[in-house]
Amino acid sequence: MTNKSVLLVLVALVSMPSLVDGLRVCATLDSGFDMLVDQTMDISAVTSESQLEGYHSDMREQILTLKLNLTYELAVLPSYGQVMVETRKGTCDVGWASFFYMGNRDRCFPDPNTCRDISLYTEAEKASPTPWRCCTDYSTPLLTYGIAFAYDARQVSFFEALIGCITNVFFINFISFIFILIVLVSHLIWFFERRSNADEFPTDYSDGIDDAVWWSLVTITTVGYGDKVPKSAGGKMVAVVWLFLGLFLYSILSGHMAATFADIRDKKIYFQTVDDLIASDLKICSYASQFAQAGRLAAIKTSNQVPRSGTVGCTDAMIAGEADVVAMDLFSLRYWLSTTPSAQKTYSIGRSINQYTVAVVYPEGTSAAGVAVRPFKDLIDPAIGEFVQLPLADTIRNKWAPEAAFASGEETEPFQWELVGTANALIIAYILLKIFVCVKPASTKEVMRRMSSTRVMGASGGSSGNIRPAAPVPETLQTVVVPLGKSDVDP
Asked: In sequence order, which ranges of 140-293 are alpha helices (DSSP H)?
């Protein structure tokens, strides 16, 4: 290092206090990180930490105010992108927000998509600042977490799943195909059986085809009552083919219906990787930068992208039905779920699919001699590194993103009380009916019948209680005995 370079560094260190006196910190609103104490306040009116609350507000107070004893001007900007661009321009000395570390933002290589010349940035570009989000220095990491997914974890009721199965397109098409086969086989079996087995398959078409349809139906469903059995050679050949075809078709139907029922009943969405999310064909809500060309969710179809500026916008979109899944940082989602009791019974948060280093950003400054002059970074970074190791840092983190808000997606299926209650009511009714029959006193007629039976047994000298009197022969069944040779019937 030349003597001139050493001199520049010494000048920078000596002048640090005066630089810090004019420290300007920029932030942006995000759920759990920085939020307005007064929700009706305009962000342009925010000038101090007392007007904000959240993880970053607490961390700035602990590190900048209490640890470093600094005074600073606070400004809240509309988005993460504007905070980074204004920090790159030097308007902000520190961009204190949850910035994921990304290599293209740390680099300063000209690129029309990720790193444009800052001199081309105008007021009109504030709506889409992504191409200018580069040439910044990241701080010591504040947090390490990743993108997680929030989704509707409610299970569909039994009846809804059942209706969904029988209205499924595959089921309707399959049943239509089966119906055509049943009609065809019914005619074949009737044709072969109508003469040799007319008792079970009558010759008359209107009667015989009904029985043939019944036989075809109970055979293909593998029930086989056995009330009608083919006896002709042709009928038996048709029956053999129909039996094996029925087993094959019924296996397909039962397997598909079981899988469909399970899919409908269990609407949980669980992802291991971003590729799983991309392949799901669901509507995904996330930061607009995640859908950009360099974003992790850029491969999701445009029709399935629901870009929002933060967690609140995405969770509102999910509740309104505009999005199926919210892909946001785990910290923000934990805060949202922990502070929204109505959502805790409906929505769940999956595990992070990746890990991000979260840090604040500083302007990238270089002197004419090529020596980096970063007094704010050199002053604040060591304080951040020391503080995040303290138990107090964990306390602050758990205050705004409690572990209890994390859900693994494993839930207990609730009782369907309309089914369980009805079944139990029927069982109780049956038990009560049996008890009533057992304890009901015998009627007068029944008592007289038993007494008459006892007298008959006594008169016949029967000694065993197992002997029962013969029942009287009805008059309609009595036969007149005519002596031989005296019949009045003409031969």
From this structure: 158-166, 169-193, 205-220, 233-265, 274-279, 288-291
Contact 300, 291 (CB under 8 A): yes
Residue 65 DSSP class: I
Per the domain annotation, does 308 fall within a domain? yes
Pair (84, 131) in one structural domain: yes
CATH at 295: 3.40.190
Number of domains in the chain: 3
291-295, 386-390, 418-422: lowest mean pLDDT where? 291-295
Classify strands 147-152 and 284-287 as parallel, antiparallel or unpaired.
Answer: unpaired
**Residues near 357 by Cβ (< 8 Å), separated by ≥ 6?**
100, 101, 138, 141, 143, 144
Statement: residue 190 has pLDDT above 90? yes
Could you count the other beta carbons within 10 Å of the beta carbon of residue 272? 10
Quick check: 220 and 211 in contact, CB under 8 A? Answer: no
Distance CA 12, CA 377 (A): 12
Distance CA 101, CA 393 (A): 20
CA distance 271 to 150: 11
Shared domain check, 128 and 115: yes
Is there a domain that residue 481 lies in?
no
Q: Which residues of 44-77 are buried (b: 16+ CB within 10 A; e: fewer)?
A: eebeebebbbbbbbbbbebbbeeeeebebebbbb
**What pTM does this model have?**
0.57
Q: Within this chain, do residues 72 and 126 fall inside the same structural domain, yes or no?
A: yes
Contact (Cβ atoms closer than 8 angstroms) between residue 380 and residue 93 = no
Coil, strand or helix at 42:
coil
Q: What proportions of the chain, in percent to the nearest 5, are helix, strand and coil?
A: 50, 15, 35
